[in-house]
Amino acid sequence: MVDPTQRQSPRRACTVAEIAVDDKYAVVGGPFGSKLVTKDYTETGIPVLRGSNLPFDRKIDLSDVVFVSEAKVKEDLFGNLAFPGDIVVTQRGTLGQVGLLPLEGPYDRYVISQSQMKLSIDRSKADPRFIYWYFRLPAVRKTFENLDSSSGVPHINLETFRSFELFLPNLGEQGLIATVLDSFDDLIENNRRRIELLEETARLLYREWFVHFRYPGHEDVPPVDSELGPIPEGWEIREVGSVCKLVRGRSYRGEELVEEGGIAFLNLKCVERGGGFRSDGIKRYSGPFKPAQQTYPGDTVIAMTDMTQERHVVGHAARVPSLDTEFGVISLDLNRVIANPEIDSDYLYGMFRYSEFSREVKEFANGTNVLHLNPRSIEGRRFPCAPEHLQQSYADSIRAGVELIDQLEQQNKLLAETRDLLLPRLVSGELDVSDFDLDLEAVG
């Protein structure tokens, strides 16, 4: 924990329970046992917050929520509700995950899952935004990990969380610090939205040309029968294994991962749910590797496992962005795609990312707690392969967007690094927030 005596401004000690609202449901965990199981999920209703909704790099991710009915909540889950402005922390599983429910979000209440706990804060005592950032401190995350009270799945006792000690500045300073840190997140989130729009443009173009066969000049090309149905004349049905090579990543030991130096190490956390790359997932690696396990900017990698099935990454593809080392090394959970000379790599990435590829190959993944995908399931998948001139035309059409995505990814990486560098110094008082002046556009 951070030593409060090392701060320039005074901090008062308090517990989580002392900053909570005066309500018996202010600090609660998720429902017990059979009160909430998969069969209770519905298509609409009240959203359920799971570990997948608490990413380490964002306040909350509500893009993939499940729901339960109003009747189910009234019957069994009324004591497990969270509301806008509440803090949600992982109680069981991946300790250290924390989220802040948006005040202006799409929902007015949520159900926390069996693996989460929530804190409703008395805003006359603490700013929820500051508490979120406080829980994001590396030292606090490490403390949560060390609070594990079980010999099996990592677990924090609810009473231990209530008595967890914090050192807080006055309420006004909390708000100023949170505002500075939030400014970084706002710019990062804006860049994320721009990236999503650029990727959606590439997806729509790919599907228009290569799924619906409405490419420039398609009116003059007659359809022909194939084993996959009608395809344009001049196209071929190819197996994935005939147009590229899949290279398995490196198995590694924990001590081979380092805090500084080393080589960029790409792992399962580098793949977004639904595909795409997450730069914050990159680690540093100092162990041995083979040349075939190297990866370079522009390469395609595919997730071959799903360590937590809630993330839904198995079978999904990501494009490697610019790295801060000459090349990266991929982990055993990824496969690198090496396109044959006659196949455009951007076109092939589109097939992996924007077609029905990931959904189809996921059906071949097996495992109870961890899904595994055999490369042969990918290599044997057949698809209509477009002529080289159309592949090249598609690549030319999306090139500017791909380059801009890479630039935005790099901006976000720099913004996140700067934010994370400032976080402990601002929260501890080492930096006086009242004198703080930062040009975020210059950082980005």
Characterise this structure.
The protein is of the alpha+beta class and 444 residues long. The protein folds into three domains: 4-168, Adenine-n6-DNA-methyltransferase TaqI, Chain A, domain 2; 169-214 and 387-444, Helix Hairpins, CATH 1.10.287.1120; 236-385, DNA methylase specificity domains (Adenine-n6-DNA-methyltransferase TaqI, Chain A, domain 2). Helices cover 32% and strands 18% of the residues. It has eleven helices and 25 strands. Strands 15-17-16-22-18 form a five-stranded mixed β-sheet, with no helix packed on it. It has a four-stranded antiparallel β-sheet with strand order 2-9-6-7, with helices on one face. Strands 4-3-8-5 form a four-stranded mixed β-sheet. A hairpin with a 6-residue loop joins strand 11 and strand 12 (231-232). The chain is globular, with a radius of gyration of 24 Å. The protein starts with 11 loop residues before the first strand and ends with a helix. 36% of the residues are buried.
Overall radius of gyration? 24 Å
Count helical runs. Answer: 11
Strand content: 15-25%
At the third CATH level, what is the topology name of the largest domain? Adenine-n6-DNA-methyltransferase TaqI, Chain A, domain 2
Give a concise summary.
The protein has 444 residues and is of the alpha+beta class. The protein has helices at residues 16-19, 70-77, 128-136, 138-146, 158-162, 171-211, 345-354, 357-362, 375-379, 388-428, 440-443; strands at 12-15, 27-29, 46-49, 66-68, 81-82, 87-90, 98-100, 110-112, 116-119, 165-168, 223-224, 231-232, 236-239, 244-248, 257-258, 263-266, 283-285, 294-295, 300-303, 305-306, 317-319, 328-330, 334-339, 371-372, 382-385. Strands 15-17-16-22-18 form a 5-stranded mixed sheet, with no helix packed on it. The protein has a 4-stranded antiparallel sheet with strand order 2-9-6-7, with helices on one face.
